[in-house]
Amino acid sequence: MEVLVENVTQVWPGRADEQVVALQDVSHRFVSQRFSCLLGPSGCGKSTLVQIIGGLEAATEGRVRVIDPVNPDLTRPLGADSVMVWQTLNLFPWRSVIDNIAFGLEMQGIPKAQRYERAKALIGSVGLAGFDAHLPGQLSGGMRQRVALARALIMERPIMLMDEPFGALDAQTKIVMQEELLRVFDQTKKTIIFVTHAIEEAILLGDEIVVMTARPGRIKEVLPVDLPRPRSLEMVNSKAFGALFDRAFHLIREEVMTSMAQQSMALEAS
Amino acid sequence: MRKRKSKLARMAETATPTAVILAVLLAWEVVVRWRGIAPIYLPPPSTITIYLFRMIGNGSIEYNLGVTLLRIFAGFAIAALAGVTLGVLMGMSRLVARIVDPWIAALYPLPKIALIPLLVIWLGTGEVYKIVISAVTAFFPIVISTYAGIRQTDRGLIKAAQDLGANRRQIQLKVVIPSAIPSIFAGLHLGMGVTVILIVAAEMIGSSSQSGMGFLLIQSGQVMETEKVFASLVVLAVVGALIIKLQQWIDRKVAPWTIYHGGQ
Q1: B262 chain-A contacts, CB cut-off 8 A
Q2: Model ipTM value
Q3: Separation CA B101–CA B95 (nearest Å)
Q4: Which of A20, B99, B120, B150 lies at 20 to 30 Å from A104 by C-alpha?
Q5: How do residues B57-93 score in pLDDT, each as one tens digit?
Q6: pTM of the entire predicted model
Q7: How far is B156 from chain A (nearest CA, A)?
């Protein structure tokens, strides 16, 4: 499944002086089975963009189409082929691990025995065996992240939208989860759109890095990442990685400065 | 050595509150006896204890407490059912919320005890009046907390459910209502508290149904049997504490996730 973003503009409503242009005229083609990273300073609208792609927000202008390469004339409804993994995880705190993971299947009316069977298989594969009955509040941050990942994977949707999913994790757990995600990507060949503000993460995971500007968010440049797959953390020390990092850092640096200036101005105004 | 010390410290920590209670009782006993205070004003704890056992022995505590508890649970059950139902409906439908809001805004600040004369005119001083006055009072905190809980549902959870294919109905049943449970329970706790107050107060007013802890209190007070007044107060305090413990236990059984912070 590929995602075609065409001239998307997003304006948050309000009085004239309160209106915020989150995204301005963003167009990009997210190619099928490719891992794309959206890299940009905070507040640049990258979260908004993935939510529009996931059908959870309506764009003010422009459109997003999800296209099946096998059947390109048939435009699919937004959200039907994608699933989100959230930075805030959004696990249901009153549901056990297995009932969180099986939530989507439950909504489809799949009987308990069947959905538990599928959930159990996933629990094993993300390394949570034995924690079926635990509540999210009883788990560590990394384990909760695994539950969130399994809850998305069980939907078997071809597009996975990830909004800074590892942003809240400690450095070591983050590395483990990145490797886990690389394994999932190599095995399932999903189209992944991954929001991050960490340059290393974007290079390590992505096939391409879509660098965004500070608000209003526009696409500044698209950097292809031609590191071989399967990726591993050792590549961080390679020369190619270093060159990509310098490129991305150079591009993002002035955007971060602009973003910081915007934020301090907003603080002064308030 | 250090471990032992901490164990000792822990023991002291748990024993101190009990010791303070005993010290207060002892001081009370000593002062009353030493100063020769008449029991009609302040009976000593030992006499209160004797009266308490005597009242248990002749069955008056059991009977009146039983009647009071039945009234409390009847009033509370009605308030809980009506309050939670209406609160949920308000949370689900903007129209219902708009219709109900002015009524709640106008009636909630009204002291419900002020309704007693009207209710006595309408309903007499029998069972119905006592249950109605307590249910009406408990209804407000329950409906308000329920509505607030429903409205404060985390937007992120709703979006996540929507993304995972839940329809509107499923989101309400599987996300909005469960996420409001801690807030609903908080409302039920408040409601239970005012039910107890109102039932006992209502039992003190009107003389057609001569039963209940409130009646026992007012009757003992009118004939200056201060020992019985204190014994009844002790029973009410203990039962009140037990009801709160019971509610907390139910909370943990029904909503174990509320023990953990967030879950995010």
Answers
A1: 93, 137
A2: 0.90
A3: 10
A4: B150
A5: 999 999 999 999 999 999 999 999 999 999 999 998 8
A6: 0.84
A7: 6
